[in-house]
Amino acid sequence: MKVVLLCIAIQLAINLDSLCQGYSFEFIDFRNGLSQSCGNAIVKQNGYLWFGTQDGLNRYDGTRIHVYGSSTYPVIQSNYINALVPQDAQMLWVGTTQGLYKLNTELDTLTQILPDQIHHVKRLYVDSHKNIWTTSQNDTLKVINPKIDRCRTIPEFNEERVIGFSEYDGLLFIATDTKLFSYDSQDEFLTEIPIPSENNHKFEYSTSFTIDAKGIFWIGTFGNGIIRFTYQSGTLSTLDHFTSANTSLEIDEISAISQDAQKNMWIGTRSASMFIFKDGQWIVVNDNLQNKSKYIKGYIFCFYHDDQGITWIGTDGDGIGKYDPQTIKFNTILPQYYPDYDIEKGECIFHIAGNNNKVYFAIKDVCLTGYDERTKSITTYTDLHPYYLNNHPRQILIDSSGIYIGSDKGVRIFDPKSNAYAKASSFDKYIYTICLVNDQLWTGGTEGLQLLNKSDLTPIPLDPIDPLRAISKYLIRILYRDRKGNVWIGTTGQGLFHYTPSTQVVREINKNKDFDCKSIRCFHESEKCMYIGTDCGYYKINDSFDIDLKVSTANGLPNNVVYSIEQSIRSGLWIGSNAGLTYISEDLQKIKTYTISDGIPGNEFNTNASYRSDSGILYFGGMKGITSFDETLLKPNTYRSYLKIAELRVEDVPLHPSDWLKDSSVTLSYTQKRLNIKLSVSNYANCQNNYCLYKLDGINDWTRVPTSNELTFTGLAYGKYTLTIRGFNNDDYECINKASLQILIPPPFWKSKWFYGLLIVLPLALIYAWKSKELKAREKELRYKNEIQNIRNLALRSQMNPHFIFNCMSAIEYLMISGSKEKAHQYLNKFSRLMRNTLHFTSYEVVTLNEELNHLNLYVSLENLRYNNEIKMTTIIEEPVDPDTLFVPPLLLQPIVENCFKHSFSATSTHPEININISMAERYCVISITDNGRGYNPSTNSVSDAKEKSYGLAITRQRLQLYGDKANVKTHFEISNIEGPNRHGAQIVISIEQ
Question: CB of 746 within 8 A of CB of 752?
């Protein structure tokens, strides 16, 4: 039974038409940072891709994703993004379930549009007049003119679910799920277009709408496939109708229709099927069973075709799919030989050979497999012998007598004419490599070197004196017979050998000091030299066995393990390594490596698994199948992109663009040690290979920015720096612009020039200030002394008032005449004491309060002679005042009391009194002098209503102020009138800080 099943499987041919179209996809999903896997809307604007999902707005720069939502800045109230349209180079309109927003993508500022009128936005469209069309949850249709901030509801449109907008022949067409309308922007009028009667019922439940470049209307429906109409003079005519019944395609449930720049129509369905209508033919995009990981599996929401020719697909569950036409330069061949094919089985390719447009693959677990370049079909030749079934073919040798296959079971011969296996070797040694030398079949493997008869595959023993015996036990990985008939022998661990059959001479190339690698992988012979691929790079050896060149990672190779080498038609080599497929020019000036991101199935290739067919197609075998390509189709990516600084972070805190974008400068404090700069190159074809160079003036010359186009500077010294950045795409085409940033780091104040200047100027300034202060102090002291002396003279004159002296002398004279000699003697004694005290006090700056009060009592007793002792003066000293320890300016109180005698009391005054109260208030000595006279008259500065001015109080106030300045204490002098029932008079309060 097993043999029968195998027979059924023999020569199973697989048509690769859809495979060779090259429709494989990359995906952007949560693994890249996408906020959610449902792509509702896609647009390219300001150099970024913008993805609207059901959990936020995503900005993609080819490397990283930045998410805008309800918890980010700027805040969008709703995370559910339904629609996106660009207004201009910077402004992006964002439709959400909670309103319409306008995002300035340069400054990251967000504005909600008409929150009282527009709520749940379902679709957005910008027409050729830059008007914004929006539909809402309640199916109202509004048009916004951003230039004049005008919003208008279309009254003729009511409760119709809009499925799409498109423009043609100067009109805007609006399709709903049951109707079609045209809108004339000139007369602002909406007109319904009748649907042809034969398709009226089929038009119901339509889901998508567009008009192609030829003016054909495409209507996608739910259940009825695609209906196409022509339009003329307001009338639709049915063109054709595509369904699963008449196309044999799963094309009934349409979810999205779009046209790319090449005028191909992209069709998405709810069942994850995807098709392209090209030149009147349908191409099935999503049918590759051999690599499902690169194909879309979810419901398709939308398409977006950018200016690079890349198509972006919004899906339900797969995130954002990306079809990059640059990747179709490489075709992937993954043989499939069983109906229940295991995708992991048969991917490892050991060797490739061919002739006459037929290519043969030695594939792990798959035996011999043939590929016809003309029919693009694969045939697997299964060996029915149980012993050889599913063995591991390692190398293929094509000869006129048949195809020799070296495997882990020895050698097998296959006859391509009868498509049958003919002979097998009598030994089962593990064979890595085979070659024909003078009608002998040489094999190499784990058991070393073995020679076989070409005809019957019987072993040929080596002559005991044959120099090959010395190396016959080495692990031989690769054998190659060059054009001169000489044999190159590559080993694992023992190095490289050369054998000349005519002379039986074995040369050990490792003895050449410039050949320093022991593990050999492949050979490639050119007209002038031999290239040797090793685990240390590759070597170029001339006819004299000299090493002309060694190329390794030091020269730009992505990896030193060189598995395979093929000549390029562009004067260079193609290298298959552990890190992709590399083109390297002969002068080493151009090195370009292609990886998975460029469309090859895997980055790891296999030993000696490469081949150039007669048609010029190159084949490289690896761990993930066969990569084939026509190098004449490898066109460089010439798209001229823009370079942007996407984000600045200081100490890992992002800066708002308004803080640095306007002047392209950023200022750091000397304590901020970390500046992070994220860059964006607006080229999305093979965007993983975009790169940047930067130069920081005075620090470095042009240096490549690390992976992810992200620069980080730490610990920059203070100063002013100019950072210049250049961007390049994957084919080294430079961006249109350069980016620059001024970085200013002011020094700490103690290292600044002004601080050094201050250190010099400050001592001089201090000396100057000290000298100036000393001079001013002397001048002040001299001025103070002069003022004190003047005031003392004034005070003395006021104390020695001629009227007072005359009055005292007259009173004493009266007492003597009246016979009161003893009393006259007492008053004369008091008068003389008063004169001595006055002259004595004027030489002191302060006296005790007790001395001042005694002098005042002496003065009052003399002054009362004129008033017959009618004026009563009472002095009260409150605790804790000690009059012997408190000091006051001399003759301070006497001018105040004298003022009371002169001005407060008249001849009619009854019971005149002067009360002195002395107390302490915190640290102040407070002296209060009150009388019950006529009160204070500000106009005469005296306590009376006399017309003549009194200078005693003014002098006392001035003396008190000068005393305070001199003694550096606070003083106060206040005069007020006493008012109240049955009360009158004046009060003077003096406060002196102690």
Answer: yes
